[in-house]
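User: Modeling request: complex.
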Amino acid sequence: MFETEQERDRMVEHIKDLIGRKRYAELRDELLPMEAADIALLCADLDEDVPLVFRLLPKELAAEVFVELDSDEQELLIRGFSNSELKEVLDELYLDDTVDIVEEMPANVVKRILQHSDPETRKRINEILKYPEDSAGSIMTTEFVDLKKDMTVEDALKRIRRTGPDKETINISFVIDANRRLLGTVSIRTLLLAEDDDVIGDIMDSNVISVQTLDDQEDVARMLSKYDFLALPVVDTENRLVGIVTVDDAIDVLQEEVTEDIEKMAAILPTDKPYLKTGVFETFKVRIPWLLLLMISATFTGQIIAHFESALAAFTVLTAYIPMLMDTGGNCGSQASVTVIRGISLNEIEFSDLPQVIWKELRVSLICGSVLAVANFAKLILVDQILFHNPAVTVTVAFVVCVTLVCTVACAKLVGCSLPMFAKRLGFDPAVMASPFITTIVDAISLLIYFRFTTLILGI
Amino acid sequence: MFETEQERDRMVEHIKDLIGRKRYAELRDELLPMEAADIALLCADLDEDVPLVFRLLPKELAAEVFVELDSDEQELLIRGFSNSELKEVLDELYLDDTVDIVEEMPANVVKRILQHSDPETRKRINEILKYPEDSAGSIMTTEFVDLKKDMTVEDALKRIRRTGPDKETINISFVIDANRRLLGTVSIRTLLLAEDDDVIGDIMDSNVISVQTLDDQEDVARMLSKYDFLALPVVDTENRLVGIVTVDDAIDVLQEEVTEDIEKMAAILPTDKPYLKTGVFETFKVRIPWLLLLMISATFTGQIIAHFESALAAFTVLTAYIPMLMDTGGNCGSQASVTVIRGISLNEIEFSDLPQVIWKELRVSLICGSVLAVANFAKLILVDQILFHNPAVTVTVAFVVCVTLVCTVACAKLVGCSLPMFAKRLGFDPAVMASPFITTIVDAISLLIYFRFTTLILGI
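Assistant: Request completed. Predicted assembly structure:
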């Protein structure tokens, strides 16, 4: 674990130095105690030395490091591997990791990987590849411990000892019948605390929660987190156990989904690549659609201003407060919408809570609006009128601006909290209803309110 | 698991019906196969029936449900418990859960809980309570399996069988010396796959990664996720093992921290309560500081407009394009800032990447800006000039607007990507440098550019 960038850079320098002086044994000894994830981090800066470092590692560690590498580094390594090296790495990988790698590689590399996997693995890889992206099937592994319900604890432990080394986890075993239908689960803890001659069927937990292969990976991850499980069984439509999803993969899914939500909230189409690995044109492509749409919507806001041109020409001072009103409206709206969106995605808020949410936002917005209005009134009179001697800023003008502010804040909060909930209800992603979208709507509303009060109170 | 709200509501109705008809045995049989987290969900809608339902459950399940309840429901239950009931629940709880509950309860309830815990537990609770909020110490549990390095595998398994029932996890055991200093870890898998007379010191993993009690809980959670660990040892300054953090708690921490980041990005001070449980005044308090600050900053944007009042009076049509320019600038800035903030929090982007990030954003912004400018030019000429016959929209005006647009987009992207990185470098939270903050800055910049071009090209 490197605490700082500097520490890591020093280690990279040190490794390059050892390689330069051909001190390979020494380098190997330095690498051995490290965690795979840390060696992978170092590899990102080692460039052409990666294959050399990789070949110094014992094959288990090498395989672990391989899994942690970026897909372009993996591709480079695979292209450099001899056939026997490739086979050795593939033999060490867990099935779900192999599938992840296969999904990222170009066709000719995939072909080579499949050629050098044993037939059974090849068949299983192809099966998992068939599941749609983002489904439980696509992230599961088929390497789990299965038991029969008439086994004794002694049999079960023997089976775990025999088959365990190739399984992704032995912390939970899955009990199936002759047709591979899922009957229950039994944890290693239960097995260890039971008597040797207890029967699995008696000690297993038969209230088993499972997911289906086509379930959304995000739901699966949330379920693992909700129930504090270490692994969740995946069944097909006939309740036959086909795989398991483990907690480490669930954490990755949760992180990915959060990134996606955050991207959507910022009006970006979701990507699944790290920022620095995404090309300029790719970044452009995920950003431009919303920008265009929002720009065009904003030009309609401009029409409102154009419509009240004469009022503005008579009271040019009013124009100066447009940015403040629009920004404050936007900020209030985004506060409400983002809070509600996060609440929805954590299952804290449901559509039936709508009246409660609206009532709460209404009260919050009135308090916020009043405080902002008072602060703004003070600023208008003390700074603009008295300090800057601007005679156009009369008490009436200040009053119009502040009343507009209160109404804008209220509208912004109400639009902000309700749109995501309606979106969810209608089957859209609530995250899209975040700041940029809300801002555009609130802008138009706040200007309409502003000009309505202007014509009403100032009598233009 | 309830798939929909409707399903859950039906179940709540059904339970209330059973209670109304005093069919307690039947109710118990319905509840027994459910997961604790689901029963807790039901309790949220069962109101005054919660204590009754709770008393129907066997004590292990009751304790599991208790942990999953909201803190106000927990408080209500504890207040209703007899002393012996309280003791029974407390005996079943894991230490870290008890600590979580103690942290949320008012003083008189805490006193009752501590009175009814056994002295050893009380001492441990008090120790954990001493650690600062958000530290590794505050989320760890002290219930782990410890082994000595000269034990044989047989001894170790015996010890796990004997002490296991009270431990939070038996999947990993921690090897310590006579001074409780951490020597290594050994997984249950390694133990099961080893020979009975192997010695722990020989099979343990001595390259052990640990955290210190005062380390930030977010770093701890990220480490668990990075290394795919199920538990991470927590040591004091003298490397003595004092506790462990398990993966389920790490997931909760990650979720909390994401919520905090999202809140900060939306200019809200972080809270740790679910939305519907937060009072109106509390919500007001976390929202108003940024609103006030941003409103005041936005009034300075207004000064820019006031300064160019004469230009606007001559060309009132220019005012109509202010919202579009400001919004687009804000959207571009927030896209860049949010992408970079997320990259920083996932450790994908570091300060040394700044030149690369800026160079990339510059190119993206030029492409985005050009596309937006072309679209906007077409709209100005085709819609505003030709369709709406607005003679004020000349080709020169359209040109000014579009050149401003390109410059605004570029500035917005550059400010958006660099501010979070500087914030991080200076030790501030980059998440604060998100949309609202960036928008305010970009607003001012875009108006300055707009008026500069206006005076320059239109010669006002």
